[in-house]
Amino acid sequence: MRAAGVLAVVFVCLLVATTQLHAGGGEIGVDVGYAGLDEAKGGDGELAALRGGYHFNHWFELEGQFEIMSPNCPEGTCSDLNIFLINFVFNFNSDPSPRVVPYLLLGVGYTDFDTEPEFVIPGLEDQYQGQAVYATSAGCRFFLGKTKRVAIRVEVSATFFEDDQSQNGQIGLLWRLGGQK
Predict the structure, then answer these.
(1) Structural domains of the chain ordered from first start
(2) Contacts of 132 (CB under 8 A, 6+ apart)
(3) 21-32, pLDDT tens digit by residue?
(4) Which DSSP symbol is given to 72?
(5) Is residue 24 within 8 Å of residue 179, measured between CB atoms?
(6) What is the DSSP letter of 22?
(7) Where are the alpha helices (DSSP H) in the chain?
(8) Each residue of 65-110: pLDDT tens digit?
(9) Which end of the chain, C or N, has fewer beta carbons within 10 A?
(10) What whole-number distance in Å separates Cα of residue 72 and Cα of residue 147?
(11) Reduced to 3 states, what is the DSSP secondary structure of residue 94?
């Protein structure tokens, strides 16, 4: 696991070194959606996310994401999941000012409970406590207006925990900051 982390850091550093940083710009966004968890882990529920990223060029973005999944389970039997991700976003974009930008996303991160459950089912305690998380997504940004600084983001994703996975659907808004987009 440590070797994979070191390789990821080296990859990002090399990628940054070979891009034109002055051509980039940031973006921030919020998403809401649906998370499909295993019934033993609390079942399906709502999803909310806050994202912020930096475009190194028209093809690549590095993004940080904080996400909350809220399973629909009886009060006190499970808890919200906090998920922290670093995402590598690959945009399929050759136009510097497009209206539609499809993308693929690969993320790695960490998950933890928001609060400990009041009631614990034997064998299921701390089911996501301190686990690594991996995410894959495919989506599209639809930019609005003349300046194309605001977009609607639509995404389907899979989040992989150590012993489970979640299929998600999200929609959100994003705002571009700076850069020559």
Answers:
(1) 25-177 (2.40.160.20)
(2) 1, 108, 109, 110, 111, 161, 162
(3) 335 688 999 999
(4) -
(5) yes
(6) G
(7) 2-17
(8) 999 888 777 666 667 788 899 999 998 876 766 789 999 999 999 8
(9) N
(10) 40
(11) coil
